[in-house]
Design brief:
alpha/beta, Rossmann fold, 6-stranded mixed β-sheet, 4-stranded antiparallel β-sheet, 10 strands
Length: 240
């Protein structure tokens, strides 16, 4: 079973200096994530959720222990190797969308592909497919300011999935959305998870997200307090 993990953490520790004190954001965390998971890492603010995602996404490195992502130990990667891992294999979705305001929807979704050396025709085909997935083909020429919050988040999803990454990390992706938009966004991500077999890992304390996840990992003070399988029904997903 261990060999099937896309992501493994072993005794993972992350310590930040706060003045003359030290804060253990992650405290000996041992976790494994398999292909096609739809998992939420939950817990109060300061529990280590975002730190865990940042290390898995090779945006940060452990203080001690190990984080292995797609067979590569994050702590051993150079900056260039970490960037290559992100560019090819990891998509990110943030609560603030992080769209480039001067670019169109098409250009925002195309941006990750510019780093992969694809031809213009290949990029066009992949962007169109990603926009079809999120039902935004008709807004390809729009700028982010011309879109609703829900549409902006769908653009962010398209940008994350356009290269068909093995892993998508979503940090509070519904925090700025109302209940209806959150449901639509989560339904879209659930469908993409099924279609692409991409592993989705959410960092969240939003109950709307928790209703959808199929595995819930609870962090408390940087430690894994609980790791449980979830089987949400359609009614539960909608909060009924």
């Amino acid at each position: 079973m261990e060999n099937s993990f896309l992501i493994k953490t072993k005794e993972l520790v992350k310590i930040y200096p706060i003045g003359w004190k030290k804060l253990a954001a992650l405290d000996h965390v041992n976790l494994g994530f398999e292909k096609a998971e739809f998992t939420g890492v939950v817990g109060p603010s300061g529990s280590g959720k975002t730190t865990l995602l940042n290390i898995i996404g090779s945006l940060d490195v452990p203080t001690a222990g190990s984080a292995e992502v797609l067979g590569k130990k994050v702590e051993d990667l150079s900056n260039r190797q970490a960037a290559a891992l992100r560019n090819h294999s990891i998509g990110f979705i943030f609560q603030t969308f992080n769209l480039l305001p001067v670019y169109t929807v098409f250009e925002n979704v195309e941006f990750p592909l510019l780093l992969l050396g694809l031809s213009a025709d290949e990029r066009k085909q992949k962007v169109r497919k990603a926009l079809e997935w999120v039902d935004l083909v008709d807004r390809a020429k729009s700028k982010p300011a011309q879109l609703s919050g829900g549409q902006c988040q769908r653009v962010a999803i398209a940008r994350a999935v356009v290269k068909k990454p093995a892993i998508i990390l979503a940090d509070e992706p519904t925090a700025n959305l109302d209940a209806e938009n959150s449901h639509n966004i989560l339904q879209t991500m659930e469908e993409l998870n099924r279609e692409l077999k991409t592993t989705f890992i959410f960092a969240t304390h939003d109950e709307k997200v928790i209703r959808y996840i199929r595995r819930k990992i609870t962090l408390v003070d940087g430690k894994v307090a609980k790791d449980e399988v979830m089987n949400p029904t359609k009614a539960e997903r909608k909060g009924q």
